[in-house]
Design brief:
single chain; alpha+beta; ten-stranded antiparallel sheet; 4 helices
Amino acid sequence: MTARIWAVFLTCAVVVVAAGIFGLSSAGVFERGQPSSQSGPVASPTRVVTTPKPTPTPTPSPTRRTAATVHAPPRYVFPIAGCLADASQSHHDYPASDVFAKVGCRFVSPVDGRVDEVTRVDAWDPKTNVGADRGGLSVSVVGVDGVRYYGSHLSAIEAGIRPGVSVRAGQVLARTGKTGSARFTPPHLHFAISWPTAPGVWWIRRGAVPPQAFLNSWHDGGQLSPVSLVARTRRSYGVDRGCRTYC
C-alpha cells in the first residue's frame, strides 16, 4: 500500500473517531456531577423553610369564687346561753324585750361584729331615774349586718370586751344581773335592736325596733334578720332631736 493510500486511510479513521466522540457527546455523555440534557428539566432542590409556630396567647381561666370571696349571710343566735330564758313579747314606752333569766347567765353576741359601747359603772339613782343610767352595766355590738344589738342590767362584763373589739356570734360578752333600774325587779337582760349612732345616743341604743320576732326565731334555731326592718324604721324616724319618750 502506498504512502498516499495510508494517508487517506488515517484521515478517514480520524474523521470517524471524531464523529463518534461528537455523537457520544450529543447522545448524553456528561461530566461527573452534571445532569444529562435529555433527562428533562431538573428541579432545583426544594428549600424547606421552617416558620416558627406563634406562641398561643394564654386563655384566662374563669374566675373561681372561693369561700373568701363569697359573703355568707350572718349567723344569728339567741343572746342568752346556758340558761332557761323567757323573752317578753311587749315592752313599755319604747321597743325592747326583757329576757328574764337568773343572775350570772351568759349574755352572748347574737351575731358576728364589733363591740360598740361598754358601760362598766352602775350610776343609776332611783331618786332621779335618769334615762341614760337606767341600763346599769351594758354592752352594745354592731353586727356585720349593720344592725346594733344592746344588752343591759348586767352583773359583770368580760375583761376583754371593749369598744372596737371584734366578736363572734355566741361569744360571751357579759353576765346577766340586776343593775340599773332592774335593781327592784326580777333579774333580766334588757335586749334592744337599733341602727348605729354616735356614742352616747342612749335613746336610740336602748331600742328602736321591736325585737320579739327575731328573738323568737333565734331561740328556735331560725335565722330571721332584722336588717330590712331596721332600715325602714330608720328612714321613717326622721331627724334625731334627742329623747322623745320616757326620758
